[in-house]
Description:
This protein has 341 residues and is an alpha+beta fold. The protein has ten helices and eight strands. A hairpin with a 2-residue loop joins β2 (55-59) and β3.
Amino acid sequence: MTVVDDYLRGCLATTLQPWLPPTSQWFNRSEDPVYWISVYRVYRVPYSNQEIHGRISEFGQVRAWWINVSLPYPELDFGFDALPDGTVRPKEGLAGWRAVNNGVLLLLMTPLRSDEEGIDPEVAARYRIDSARAVIVGVMGLNAAFEHVCEFSISGARDPSRASISRRSPAMENPGMYDVPTLEDESVFELMRAILEGIDSLDQYTQNRVRLALRWYQRALGERRIGKIGGGNVDALINYWIALETLARVGEQKVASSLIGALSAIHNLSQQKTGETFPISQIYQRRKAVIHGGDIMLSVTFELQQFLSDVFMDILTLRVMKLSTTPRTQKYLDGRAYNYL
């Protein structure tokens, strides 16, 4: 088993070697760097698409790699050992290895440094990865980073004979509902880069607000995989609303008013016309029915969730980041969002 493990560790390190940035890019120490890597499966992009094979994009302290490769990864065993006195103790160990089948993967890499200021290195790495994934799927659609295959830290990756790897975590959902990622469109990558690198240039208060909002947005995307209640996902509704509240609220103004004001400015509409075009107040009432009325059986359609995602991305890119891009909510100017309630 040890020989097999060593062989597969070497295979993983060999697979990752072409992707590793220069050590000096993220690390200032002479010691061997440690990287945190999260792997997602990309759906509806042909395995034979050579334009994306090995595509690497830099987003500040996150490196994204789209690759069609069968990637080996460690599988950890979580369980309990029964003790003679009747109690149990947790156990964790390497149960074996698995490998993804052929298909397009997105690997997100960030440095795992011990010198992060005032924060646990793993927490800092997860925040960077989560923000990057949230922006990638916000711009390109959920299929661009759909199924969470695994995550792990790796050291010694430049020497396959001594690579050390840890951690793993899976997730799953149906990709047929989502658009095909436009991996060949360079402007898409420029937009993602502008968002992720632009966050660091914001003032600290706004930067913290954006990162927290992206965390709730990411949670809204992820909660959809956990399950449905009564034919609609109220968890996604609440998560989207909290993400929007974190991002868009102005002073003591009510969230619905802040959202209507933001959409009014984006589309150059009056407040009244904006309210008639976008069902913000009606969604707020649904949020109240869940939070204050306990209505967990409330139906929340897939289309309504997509509308909330588009509102979030427009406020992030056009109002907070002040980027020049076409509003995603432009397609709802005919009032169609009311049909999703």
